[in-house]
Amino acid sequence: MKLHFLGTGAGMPSKERNTSSIAMKLLEERGTIWLFDCGEATQHQILHTTIKPRKIEKIFITHLHGDHIFGLPGLLSSRSFLGGEDTLTIYGPVGLKNWIETTLALTTTHLSYPIKYVEVTEGIIFEDEQFIVRAMLLAHVIPCYGYRIEQKPLLGELLVEKALTLGVPKGPLLGKLKQGENIVLASGETVYSMDVTSPAKEGFIVTILGDTKLCDNAIHLAEGADIVVHEATFDAETKHLAANYGHATNVEAATVAKKAKAKNLILNHISARFLPNDLAKLLQQAREVFPTTYMANDGTQIELKNKELV
Ligand code: ZN
Questions:
Q1: Ligand 1 centroid to residue 142 C-alpha, Å
Q2: Ligand 1 mean position to 65 CA, how many Å?
Q3: Which of 90, 148, 186, 202 to pair with 225, CA 20 to 30 A apart?
Q4: CA of 211 to the centre of ligand 1 (A)
Q5: Which residues of the chain have pLDDT under 70?
Q6: Architecture of domain 2-154+201-309
Q7: Segments making up each domain of the chain, as ranges
């Protein structure tokens, strides 16, 4: 799993930062990419990466402010031009489907693939054998969701030699044992999966939060997460503005990660008021509260391997 930050700015694009979008590359896990928010020109940012739009399987939108969605129509259209055929599922607040469908209809944009819309409410919004995604409302000036992506435990390795020693013949029975099933041999003896596999490995937890002021739901979503991506639109000196505008400071983001006992925090959604020279200070202030804090810049990639940052 790799997070690739495509846009890390707040409100409007600057020369350094585009508007919000994060790609979660799940190429090893499921051969696809999940996108979180899609600010204007996200598809231009994608041109500078190896990301193939047709590989985008799901798009999760946190809220309907333009700097988080204005890139959608263009990206959806290009995904079609580039041969996308697989269904794309778009998760987002009420109103998103209407806006997309109206835009596509008025511009006579025809897509080569179906879109499935999921209107997000709090709770589990997606689950399959690999992943479970939960959403909770944050505290912004319009309804805004945070997403918690949990990978389910990974099957242990099959200890082939041990299974063979116990008399399991080569072939499909080995596969059943690997999948966690117990089997009965021709001799009538039972071989238990747990005896011939290594223990299951814990999956990762990544929490991606939309715009929000400091709030309890951000902490709930971030509990024990390997990575928390939190906005940091303001800092200590501009703290008085943060809550009024439904945003958080760098130190508040660090407080959320600390209270949630998360492992790593990525500061995102950085205002253009901060100059490149200010960034080290922003990061340092957050690290005083939560030491394993990092700053997202456009193009930053963060990989998790066995739940460790690499
Ligand atoms: Zn917003």
A1: 7
A2: 5
A3: 90
A4: 5
A5: none
A6: 4-Layer Sandwich (3.60)
A7: 2-154+201-309, 160-195
